Amino acid sequence: MPESLVRYSRRPPEEAERRHVEIELTVTADGEVRDPVAVSDTGDPRLTGQALRAVATARYRPRLVEGEPQETKGVRFIQPFYVLIEAVPAEPPAPATPQGQGSG
Fold this sequence. Notes:
It is built from two helices and five strands, in the order H-E-E-H-E-E-E. It is an alpha+beta fold. It has a single domain, classed as Fusion Protein Consisting Of Minor Coat Protein, Glycine Rich Linker, Tola, And A His Tag, Chain: A, Domain 2. A hairpin with a 2-residue loop joins strand 3 and strand 4. The longest helix is centred in the middle third of the chain and has 13 residues. The protein is elongated and about 90 Å long. The mean pLDDT is 81.
């Protein structure tokens, strides 16, 4: 498991959240990947790109039919990511108006 996945998964819920990218692909009879596509993601193109690169470089055990490897279409994987939640900066306080200088 990637170090960042474990490290961020142990953070409190207000500091990190789990997101996922679902990938559909074809596993060839040789165990290679063909036509990977993200079918569901969190709207973060960086995470989608990471998941697509990871799945494209992997090797898989092909499905066997009567002992012979077969191409399998429609294989789906869900890649989880734990990401840090960005703190929303607080609005600065409104400047105080000196007493006696109000409108009116």
